[in-house]
Amino acid sequence: MKIVEINKLKKSFRRGFLGRRFLALKGLSFSVERGEVYGLLGPNGAGKTTTIKILTGLLSADSGGIKILGEPIGAPRIREKIGFLPENPQFHDFLTGEEFLNFHSNLLGMPRYGRKEKIKELFNAVGLKGAGDLKLRAYSKGMIQRIGVAQALLGEPEILILDEPMSGLDPIGRKELRDIILSLKERGKTIFFSTHILPDVEVICDRIGVILNGELKGEGKLEELLGARIKSYEISFRGGNTGLIEKLNNVSTRILRGADQITIYLEKEELVDKTVQDIIQAGGKLAALIPHRETLEEYFVRTYGKEWVR
Amino acid sequence: MKKTISIAILTFKEAIREKILYNLIVFALIFIGVGAEAAYFVIGDWERIVKDISLSSIEIFGVLISVFLGVGLIAKEVDRKTAYAILSKPVSRTSFVLGKYLGLLMILGLNSIIMLIALFIALLYARSPVEFVTIQAFVLIFFQFMIIGGFALLFSTFTTPTLGAIISLTLYVIGHLSHDLQYFTSEKFSPLFRWVAKFFYLTLPNLEILNVKPLATYSTPVEGAYFLNAIVYGICYSVFLITVAVLIFRRRDLK
Asked: What is this structure's pTM?
């Protein structure tokens, strides 16, 4: 079942002194299924935040349609189904963590009965146990990001929308937030998030969409995009006669000599069987044969490198 | 309505932390206190001067508080992006603007109570009874705060706090010159000039309707009908301003 359906979405902004129109989204279409983690990837200025702001009612589209659970967006009550974490979130920092979540619970019209327990649960879920009495101005950036996730989770939304959730976090902060997202994924939450940090996407996403210059350039499951393509083969062996290295020099792209082991890299699959046979015939003992799949980063550089840079 | 009240309480809690609020309240209290003391040495009616200085101080500093707090109400929320998490919740832009205005009125109400206490102390010091007309003058000053705060909030939906403050304060001054604008609508002037003067006379606020300070100073009673009409004028004008603010903010893209 589709949670979000975006159809031929267009949005333009006026720019410069003369107010010339700049098309930020050029007919964007994609959908997010229930229970999946969908990553919208693209460089800065590609249109990710614009898409998210239209989804959350902060911007209005020029044309095109957005439906959430089959209902067109527009009426505020549709936003009950959305939990949103803005990019580099800023909150009212004179509130304590608990007051902040209580205020957002009021905005969602949540009943007062059982609210305190719910807020406590959320503090635990995002790793902020014991921070409820602290004012938000005393929170670190990572803590702000986590309480931002907590406010997005209030009211059990159908979909979580996270705009660049990892942006500006240190490696530990990134890992902590990634773990929170993964735990939400395990609980079956539908998550839609934008990012330009590719290693995070490989760990978190089920499906990705690539947006460049306001257009969706590609979409698919990660295993479909990366799974089939093997970038290189790594063969490690011990021993072998002197002529073997000379032979391997002609077929391999790289040879690494260790203390008691030699590792070679091959790019072509058809060379693998023959090379293994050569090693064995030369008295070598095979230690490992590892196929290396392409990383998302390499896939991006190969497929969208020129456009991404532009 | 609960959402509007939540936003109003948040606005109140935020405004009460603003240093400028305390600075202006302290200045107003100093003016009232020094005025009451200095008036003793002035030849004339001590009581009258105390009332005049106190009510004028309340009005001027109250208007400054309305403007300086009002112009940041929405502009700051948008600039700091604190509005994003709020408006992505099931909260209409109308509720947001109304909540902000209500929060401003709460802080203006608190400020007015402090000023009223200061006024009573000053009158007590001047051995003057608290007359009903003084209370009426005070109430109508509060409606001036409502209108000027409404203007500040309106400008806050589409312009910078600095520009909003300049225009709001200008409108406060013009609002007290309505009788002069009316003069320009007389037959002595060209039709185009008259039309322009009439347009501004009818659309800009007539704050003189809400100014009965001279009557309070001279202990001249204000008719009940006039007082009620003035209150209705203040409410209608404020509602008009907030409606325009809502219409503008509903169409605004939060980039």
From this structure: 0.83
**Same structural domain for residues A186 and A217?**
yes
Q: Tell me, yes or no, whether A210 and A252 share the same domain.
A: no
* Residues A89, B81: C-beta atoms closer than 8 Å: yes
Q: Does B127 touch chain A (CB under 8 A)?
A: no
Q: How many domains does chain A have?
A: 2
Nearest-by-CA chain A residue for B4: A107
In a domain, A140, yes or no: yes
CB contact under 8 A, B90 and A108: yes
CB B128 within 8 A of CB B51: yes
Residue B80 in contact with partner chain A when CB distance is under 8 A: yes
| A160 within a domain of the structure (yes/no) | yes
Question: Domain of A249?
Answer: 230-293
**Closest approach of B221 to chain A, Cα-based (Å):** 46
Contacts of A59 in chain B (CB under 8 A): 253-255
B13 touches chain A (CB under 8 A): yes
Residue B239 burial (CB count, 10 A): 12
Closest CA to B154 of B244, B35, B21: B244
Tell me if A157 is assigned to some domain: yes
Tell me the pLDDT tens digit for each residue of B14-71.
888 877 778 878 887 887 777 777 766 766 677 788 888 888 888 988 999 999 999 9
Same domain, A203 and A269: no
Binary contact (B253, A59; C-beta < 8 A): yes
ipTM: 0.83
Cβ distance of A57 and B88 shorter than 8 Å: yes
Amino acid at B144: Q
Alpha carbons B158 and B167: distance in angstroms, whole number: 13
Collect all residues with Cβ–Cβ distance below 8 Å to A207 and sequence separation of at least 6: A33, A36, A37, A38, A39, A219, A220, A221, A222
Asked if residue A298 belongs to a domain, the reply is no
Interface test with B, best of A25, A58, A137 (most B CBs within 10 A): A58
* CATH for A245: 3.30.70.260
CATH of the domain at A163: 3.40.50.300
A39 and chain B in contact, CB less than 8 A: no
